[in-house]
Write a structure and sequence with these properties.
Layout (H helix, E strand, L loop, with lengths): L3 H4 L12 H25 L4 H16 L3 H9 L2 H27 L2 H8 L2 H13 L5 H9 L1 H9 L6 H23 L6 H19 L3 H4 L13 H25 L5 H8 L2 H13 L7 H20 L10 H4 L7
Helix pairs in contact: 2-6, 2-13, 2-15, 3-5, 3-11, 3-13, 4-11, 5-6, 5-10, 5-11, 6-10, 6-15, 7-8, 7-10, 8-16, 9-16
Length: 329
């Protein structure tokens, strides 16, 4: 009798290797699990949002800078394209700043839930930026998350509601830079694009640092202050293990998976983040059942969203490295 493992295409006890598709599915699930840790690490790192994001971006860019393929891609990139990706990188920096600001002002569960709103914002923003007709189905999807948002707001302590507002702004920024990336068809290699966007974002945060105490004191912090050993190790884990490693693995996995399949799996990221926050941080003690009911409504809509784009090809893999809300179609 053929075993279940063989029928599932995932090998058997005789040592049969995994099929490329099964291996890719395992890889993308592992990537999503690692991405789920980004909010958790953001809560565990004691640095304010600004230096946290600055160090994360700097470490990723420094690592990418040692790759010869990144420099080859950079030399081949036209100046106009380079400038466009640099502008998108500024939005990426603001997205990460507001995402980790939401983590600090509320908690990891709230920030992860807010970032799940990105597809709803995209349904409104993308047609405007890409000059395509509005889809009534996508607009209906965007409206479907509103009851969940209302429950989430009602299910958190009053002191966390600023974190929800900042988290929603972070999701809007995902919609903006994700839609702008879609206008940059065949702009270059994903690793090079990521290096350009995060390099520009690092520069923007460096310029904003002196102004941040006046603009948003809750986010500000000294960029030149060397992190403690604990924070330094967590920053390395955030930058290398939860950003670059899953990015590299996901680029390999994308060769064997459809956009629909990838999006279904990556939609699990807030689920992983919320479960990890409960297990590692005990955040369920800070939140009410209304919050989790709202989360369920939002995630139900998010999981339905790939059905609207089931036949679209995979595009813009760089978003897997630059966004907490991964949308590659």
């Amino acid at each position: 009798m053929v075993s279940y493992r063989r029928r599932a295409g995932i090998g058997d006890n005789s040592g049969m290797p995994l099929s490329p598709t099964a291996k890719a599915q395992l890889q993308i699930h592992f990537c999503v699990l690692l991405w789920g840790f980004t909010a958790i690490l953001g809560k565990m790192i004691t640095l304010p949002a600004l230096p946290l994001v600055w160090w994360r971006m700097l470490l990723v860019v420094a690592t990418l800078a040692v790759l010869p393929s990144v420099w080859r891609g950079l030399r081949a990139m036209p100046a106009r394209t380079l400038l466009a990706y640099s502008g998108i990188g500024a939005l990426v920096a603001l997205h990460w700043l507001t995402f980790y600001g939401a983590v600090k002002l509320a908690n990891a569960s709230v920030a992860a839930t807010c970032i799940a709103l990105a597809p709803a914002f995209t349904s409104v923003v993308e047609p405007w930026l890409t000059r395509r007709p509005f889809s009534m189905r996508e607009l209906a999807f965007g409206l479907a998350v509103l009851p969940g948002v209302a429950l989430v707001v009602g299910g958190v302590p009053h002191g966390m509601r600023m974190g929800i507002a900042i988290g929603a702004l972070s999701a809007l920024l995902v919609a903006l830079f994700g839609s702008l990336n879609k206008r940059m068809v065949d702009g270059g290699d994903p690793l090079t694009i990521t290096a350009v966007e995060l390099g520009a974002g690092t520069l923007l945060l460096t310029l904003l640092a002196p102004l941040m105490p006046m603009l948003f004191p809750a986010f500000s912090g000294d960029l030149l202050l060397v992190p403690s050993l604990r924070d330094a190790l967590l920053l390395l884990a955030l930058s290398l293990l939860c950003t670059l490693l899953p990015f590299a693995l996901s680029l390999v996995a994308l060769r064997h998976l459809s956009a629909y399949g990838v999006q279904l799996v990556t939609n699990l990221e807030p689920v992983y983040a919320i479960v990890l926050a409960m297990v590692l941080l005990g955040e369920q003690r800070e939140l009410t059942p209304l919050f989790y009911l709202g989360v369920a409504i939002i995630l139900a809509a998010v999981f339905l969203h790939p059905l609207l784009n089931r036949n679209k090809p995979l595009q813009h893999a760089e978003i897997l490295a630059t966004s907490e809300a991964k949308r590659v179609e």
